[in-house]
Amino acid sequence: MHENMNQELDFMFVKYARVWIPDVEEVWRSAELTKDYRQGDGALQLQLEDGKELEYKLDPKTNNLPHLRNPDILVGENDLTALSYLHEPAVLHNLKVRFIDSKLIYTYCGIVLVAINPYETLPIYGADIINAYSGQNMGDMDPHIFAVAEEAYKQMARDERNQSIIVSGESGAGKTVSAKYAMRYFATVSGSASEANVEEKVLASNPIMESIGNAKTTRNDNSSRFGKYIEIGFDKRYHIIGANMRTYLLEKSRVVFQADEERNYHIFYQLCASAHLPEFKALKLGKADDFHYTKQGRNPVIDGIDDAKEMSTTRNAFTLLGVNESYQMGLFRILASILHLGNVEVKDRDSDSSIIPPNNGHLSVFCELMGVTYQDMSHWLCHKKLKTATETYIKPIPKLQAINARDALAKHIYAKLFNWIVDHVNKALHSTVKQHSFIGVLDIYGFETFEINSFEQFCINYANEKLQQQFNMHVFKLEQEEYMKEQIPWTLIDFYDNQPCINLIEAKMGVLDLLDEECKMPKGSDDSWAQKLYNTHLKTCALFEKPRMSNKAFIIQHFADKVEYQCDGFLEKNKDTVNEEQIHVLKASKKFDLLVELFQDEEKATSPTGAAPTTGGRTRLSVKPDKSKAGQASKEHKKTVGLQFRNSLHLLMETLNATTPHYVRCIKPNDYKFAFTFDPKRAVQQLRACGVLETIRISAAGFPSRWTYQEFFSRYRVLMKQKDVLTDRKMTCKNVLEKLVQDQDKYQFGKTKIFFRAGQVAYLEKLRADKLRAACIRIQKTIRCWLARKKYLRMKHAATTIQRYVRGYQARCLAKFLRRTRAAIIIQKYQRMYVQRKCYKRKQAAALVMQCILRAYMARQLYKALLREHKAIIIQKMVRGWLARQWFKRSLRAIVYLQCCIRRMRAKRELKKLKIEARSVEHFKKLNIGMENKIMQLQRRIDEQNKDNRSLSERLNGLEISHAAESERLRVEVTRLRGAEEDAKNNANKVTTLLEELERLRKDLQNTQKEKKVIEEWAKTYQDEMEQMISELKEQNHLLKNEKNDLNRMIQEQGQQWTEKMQRALKEETEQLENDLNEERSRYQNLLTEHLRLEEKYDDLKEEITLAVNVPKPGHRRTDSTHSSNESECTYNSEFAESEEGSRGGEDVSKAILDMSLFLKLQKRVSELEQEKQSLQNELDRREEQFQRARARDDEEHKKARSAELEYESLKRQELESENKKLKHHLNEMRQSLRGSPEAGSAAPGSPAYTVLLDQLNSSNEELEVRKEEVLILRSQLVSQKEAMQHKDEKATMTEPLPYIEDVQKLTDAKEISQAYMGLKDTNRSPFPDYHKLNEDGELWLVYEGLKETNRLLESQLQAQRRSHENEVEVLRGELQSVKEENNRQQQLLAQNLQLPPEARIEASLQHEITRLTNENLELHSDDPKEYKAYRISMLRRMVDLMEQLEKQDKTVRKLKKQLKVFAKKINDLEGGQMDVSPGQTTDEPVHPVNIPRREKDFQGMLEYKKEDELKLVKNLILELKPRGVAVNLIPGLPAYILFMCLRHADYVNDDQKVRSLLTSVINSIKKILKKRGDDFETVSFWLSNTCRFLHCLKQYSGDDQFMKHNTPKQNDHCLSNFDLAEYRQVLSDLAIQIYQQLIKCMENILQPMIVSGMLEHETIQGVSGVKPTGLRKRTSSIADEGTYTLDSIIRQLNTFHSIMCQHGTDPELIKQVVKQQFYIIGAVTLNNLLLRKDMCSWSKGMQIRYNVSQLEEWLRDKNLMTCGAKETLEPLIQAAQLLQVKKKTDEDAEAICSMCNALSTAQIVKVLNLYTPVNAFEERVSVLFIRTIQTRLRDRKESPQLLMDTKLIYPVTFPFNPSSLALETIQIPGSLNLAFLTRV
Predict the structure, then answer these.
(1) Which pLDDT belongs to residue 137?
(2) Partners of 169 in the beta sheet?
(3) Among 1, 49, 644, 902, whose CB has the most other CB atoms within 10 angstroms?
(4) In whole angstroms, what is the distance from residue 754 CA to residue 760 CA?
């Protein structure tokens, strides 16, 4: 085994291996081996990261090698236990990389969550993050405090066991913040929104607890000097119901003493800073430096903290928790008195007594504030009472004891005050509901060590020893459970057990025991106690040491570090004595109730030395005596602080042991609060102190690395041969491991996992990396060879082809050249021969003469020269010979010597070069290459020389022949020339003459050349000038052309820019409008969803109350209407029920009563509104003439008035709605009060009040009938008047068509606005809940509302007229008089017409009006045509306005009349008792009063049913229908067609009650079936399709032109003939929206479990991504096991959804919207999990995601859904996957990423880059500099800072009109529907 280990070390400690070495500054530094290590080497040769060489000496005794560094792919892991090498430097480096590089503050360390304070606000605590972590397994997501909270919450619900979250760490490490976020998580996920204020209250207590429990220390400006344990209570449903806070370890000694650079508790400094406030004047405070208790640290100010502002925050927190102002001032009085008490000066009277001088100012203020006498307090501060068995003595005490007594009193008062505040905080957090379970959050500081450590640090470290022991045992227990679960041999793990240290402290004769014993001694002192410690433990306990230079201190070896404690003050702090008489003086205060309240439970107590200890100390808060046991309480008071602390600590440990603990260790990265700055020294110190490294050590001692067999096989498959792979993965892994790791102790095979010891994973990773590297090299070699050979062959083929063609071309060119050359030579030969012969014959005669003379002359001259030259040559020869011989001799010697030197030097160089080249293989290669080239060149040259030789030999033969002929010819010629020589001599005399002539000709030629040169220079100058001028003109022309082109281009560019700008602006505006429309639609649909949720909640609560309180009785069930909708939502509360549901409501009917007082009040209000309406009508008539003229002048003002009207109407509508709600509330209260009164029967049918009600209703009905007839008559008169004027003056009106058209258009718009507004008002009204209760929800209020609406419209128009036309009142008074006269005449005519029958009235009134208008028009036309024309236009406009007003009034009156008829019918039914309801039958309530105008049209084709069959129809067609059978066997939408055909029959018989009942029943039944089976996608889809089809049928057969244009003539004949159901279409549209949203939720619930597993975790492309080590926290495996969802599962589910919707006949556009929502959910959930899972951010995972997305896109293409917008919803996910795969190094890469990732926010891009983790060693991490570059480039983006996508977002749905081509008369009803009672008509 030892040999194997050595081999392994030799294998790991090789060259380039990286190790950790200790360092003073950085704690640990990384280094790289530059030389292999061999056994026995005394040192390692290392190279640091900065390039420095280092020799690392090994310890010769232990020979321990340095720690090996983990592979890069393991660095930055979520769980420290996943590291192969588990040691301190690996932990520190992993935390640093995650914190600095990845900006991740949370890391798991086994069961511990390590949280590093970033000192910066991070966006990782929002509601979206909470939702992402809710319900997830702890190992599936990145480490987070929410993951720990979710684990605790889940275990509490699953295991029915209380939980604890132990948050520890130094002050300032973020403990309180972590606890706060944990509580916020519980408040959010518990689903208890109403109880969420518990967290707010707990957080509101933070300023209070920090002010009274926090102080500045040398390490932290806001150090918490106490611990707290908050229990968050839950009920049986695990909703938060309350909380309770327990505090521990308050450091009371800080009240009276602070070390240098420290402060007292913050509250004292806050008081001093606020001393100038008026309410604090009575406290007589000053600066903090004026008080002894606040100036000892000599640093009363904290930089950046405003104590006065903090005081305001503290006071606000007191107020929020219910502490009133008087109690607050009482608290501040006590705190101020403590400060004054500290300034009380005690003087020596003698050696054994002391005294306080009289009239001490501070003591006087203390007594005044406390309400006690000065004499008593000054006396007992300097005296104490001693009791014996028989007598009591009062004894003076010396000055030192008096000061200690004063300080003890101050500490005691402060401890009591602290207790009181904590009690009041708990009262504010208390809940009356019984607690079922709880989760405790322990926020307690960690291990402490200072320069001076006293009793407080001793207690803190003792508590941490206990907590560490509990933590170690828990970790040990978990390890043991894991081993037993996996059935591997259990070996005892050797871990640090701190029980000896605990025994040293708390055991018998331990430190605390000896301290208590010393306190009982009368003469006990700190020195004697120290000596006892030395004598008892110095030689017996190895953990106890004595300092070398001190006899008043001792050292204890704690689990984290050695701590030296100073013994001074231990006894006094342990006694914590206080004078009993001082307490009595305070309790005797009669002016200060709060002080008495603080000490009301104070019992008489004496310390072992005769003084009374306080209940304080650091643990008195947790040790509260039982008030019912006085004896036990008295005994409790006798305990010392150490004993009480030990007992309270045991209680805390019992509480923690009774719960399941979860650990959070908070780390403070630096002492300067710099954001994301990591100090290794401070971090290591805290890691050691909080037990994280101990956890690592325990894990490393066993088998820290754990793999499932499938994960191991997937990761290390490359190390196996094909023959090693078996079907059994377990056996395969065993066989491979036995070959790879020889030492079997390095691993163990469990039931489902393989356990490895530390370092084995790194060893296997190295083997895997080496294997992959070798494979990569081999692949690269083969590929490069193949590529090079392929390139060579391609180049060779190309070169051969090029050579062939080039050589052919060259040969052809050469042949052509040779032919041409030969021909040219022949031609030249004969031509030259002819020219030369002719020239020769001409010159021959002259030459012969000249030759004769010249040759003679030249011969003589030549002879003389030769003679002179011959003589000179002889002389030169002799001289030069002598000189040459002399120079040659000298040069020869020098050259020989120089050649010897140079040749020797060159020979040496050549020899050296040859030696080097001889050893170089490359030399031979180059030499050979050169030789080959030379040989080829020489061969080519030889060939060329052979060709040249052949050609030269041929030419030589030819030349020899020609030379022989030429020789013969020359011989003949010489003979001839000799003859001619004689002739030349004769001509020699002529030469002189010719020479003179030649000289003269030369001179003339020179003169001519000079003149020519001058002329050429002038011409050249002129030409240059002209060329320069032309070039300048060309340049100017070119510049002008360029300028013209630039201007044209600029004009075009500007035009194009303006066009693009306008298009872009138009596009942006269009997009903005679309976005606004979608937002408004989404808001409306969200309100519908909220309404549905509240409605369901209301129904559920009502059912629960009914089941809990009432016993079902026969009768009719009644449903209350409790709310109205503001979004055109109509509430339907009448439901079809089973027989027992129907029998439930009979009792309610019997209890129906009428609130007569409220009804009479409403009647009176209606009559008042009638009078007000009449007065407004008269005012309107008076203003009509003014309005018509002003409207003709100013159309713009009219438009503004219109908008003002609508605004005013909106305000009035809101006013009436609020008034309506108040009246409903009042009505409900009155109803409740009358239910319980015995006089309820007075309002029953037949009572006097009931009779009065009927009379009033009848009178109102008659009055409205009369009003309606009047309105109809007026309307008919105006219509006839308009028609007459149009008929008579048709030609005149042609000149002014535009104003009339505009007015008519305005009339149409006004009508539409009025109708829309009235429809909105009608839909906003509360529906009628029941026919049997006239006073239920204020049905009569609808009458009042309608009348008031009419009055409001008239009033708004009147105000608009008054604002616009006040200036014309005086001008129009005369005309007003004539109008009044005309009115009187019209009234007379109206009175006459009223006496006639209704038919004759209209005719008579029309005839009379025509006659009158005709006469008026004739008179005006004859008098003044222009005035007539103006009058006609004004009258026309007046008619338009009056028609508009009367239309509105007519519509309102008709609606009110209809409602009154309904009320009258109700009353008649109640009187006659005709509404008896049998069991099982329900009476449908109306949705709301619907305006159903009648039409007179014929009808064909429908389904007839009886009224009593309506329940059966709804039951068989809706409630009991099976969607699957209908979808498969029948036509899509058949139930919708059947229901519509039944509705047509009700419309045909003109039965409005039947129409309303059927529609209400259908809507309520659909709601009921969806509530019952809302989680069934098939059912929801079926009724969504049928509801939409029913809605389309109502539109298609409504008779509206916009819906009829697609109908056939037969379908147009089937339109509704009597009722307009437009308002019901809105109701059905809202119902369809609700069904759609329920469908989306149902679909989301089905898809949600599949998305993460299928899109992220499952490997669709097997083998691409490897599995990394997971650590202790189990992570979901990426290998598909049985039952794991895959991408195929998602696609199959999508196919199922799509096929179901297609079978149900869902509209194609609606299917597209559903698919778009599906893909958005898939993309959002996948991206959110990717952003929260570091293990998923890798290159290979990006490839997997892109492949999965491509499969989804392929599915869209197969279904022809690419245009539905679903692909665009996946764009963020696609870009995230691309971001994982792109190159991430250079600035160009950063620019590419910024332009590519436009669908991702900056936070998401940076998060992905920070989380990017290599899976293999070949990948590289993203550098921090690159991420900073990305952030810099994206900082100008304007986007939401939210990190995660909103998975709850539902796109607004629309229902485009989709008419059906199916003829209704062809529909057959199958017998399977059991609808035989329906009759086809």
Answers:
(1) 82
(2) 445, 666
(3) 644
(4) 12
Q: Which stretches of the chain score pLDDT less than 70?
A: 1-11, 191-200, 202-203, 490-496, 601-638, 695, 698-701, 921-931, 989, 1100, 1104, 1107-1380, 1382-1383, 1385-1501, 1525-1529, 1662-1683, 1817-1818
- What's the pLDDT score for residue 1605? 82
CB 1846 within 8 A of CB 128: yes
Angle at the Cα of 1623 (from 1622 to 1627), degrees rounded to 5?
120
Which amino acid does the sequence have at 491? T
Q: Which amino acid is at 1369?
A: V
Can you give the three-state secondary structure of 148-178, one letter per residue?
HHHHHHHHHHHHCCCEEEEEEECCCCCHHHH
Say what the pLDDT of residue 199 is: 62
pLDDT score recorded for residue 703: 76
SS3 content of the chain, % helix, strand, coil (to 5): 65, 5, 25
Predicted pLDDT of residue 801? 95
Residues 6+ apart with CB under 8 A from 1694: 1715, 1718, 1755
1064 phi, psi to nearest 5 deg = -65, -45
pLDDT at 1288: 45
- Cβ atoms of residues 1131 and 1124 within 8 Å: yes
Question: How big is the CA angle at 1450 (ends 1446 and 1456), to the nearest 5 degrees?
Answer: 145
Indicate the pairing of strand 106-109 with strand 1879-1880: unpaired
Sequence-distant (6+) residues with CB within 8 A of 295 are: 288, 289
Both tokens of 1830, joined, read 């990305």
Cα–Cα–Cα angle for 385, 388, 389, rounded to 5 degrees: 145
Contacts of 715 (CB under 8 A, 6+ apart): 707, 768, 1666, 1667, 1668
Name the nearest CA neighbour of 576 among 143, 189, 255, 906: 255
The string over 1011-1033, giving b where at least 16 C-beta atoms fall within 10 Å of a residue's C-beta and e elsewhere, is: eeeeeeeeeeeeeeeeeeeeeee
User: Residue 313 is encoded by which pair of tokens?
Assistant: 């925050």
Rounded Cα distance, 1332 and 1776, in Å = 63
3-state secondary structure 670-736: CCCCCCCCCCHHHHHHHHHHHCHHHHHHHHHHCCCEEEEHHHHHHHCHHHCCHHHCCCCHHHHHHHH
Amino acid at 1114: P
In this structure, the strands spanning 660-667 and 163-169 are: parallel
Q: How is residue 1310 written in tokens?
A: 């006004």
Tell me the DSSP string of 1703-1756.
HTT--HHHHHHHHHHHHHHHHHHHHHHHHT-GGG-SHHHHHHHHHHHHHHHHHH
* Tokens encoding 8: 């392994």
- A 10 A CB-CB count for 1190 gives 18
Nearby residues of 933 by Cβ (< 8 Å), 6 or more positions away = none
Measure the CA–CA gap between 141 and 1657, rounded to whole angstroms.
12
Place of tokens 């059994």: 728
Distance CA 86, CA 70 (A): 9
Report the interhelical angle of 1156-1193 vs 1425-1472 (nearest 10°).
Answer: 170
The dihedrals phi and psi of 603, each to the nearest 5 degrees, come to: -105, 160
Q: What pLDDT does 1390 receive?
A: 61
Rg (CA), the chain: 55
pTM: 0.61
DSSP H helices, 1366-1397, are: 1373-1394
End-to-end Cα, the chain, rounded Å: 99
pLDDT at 1325 (0 to 100): 40
Give the tokens for residue 609: 């030395």
Q: Check residue 1485 and give its pLDDT.
A: 37
Residues 6+ apart with CB under 8 A from 27: 89, 92, 680, 681, 684
DSSP-assigned beta bridge partners for residue 240? 234
Angstrom distance (rounded) from CA 1633 to CA 1487: 18
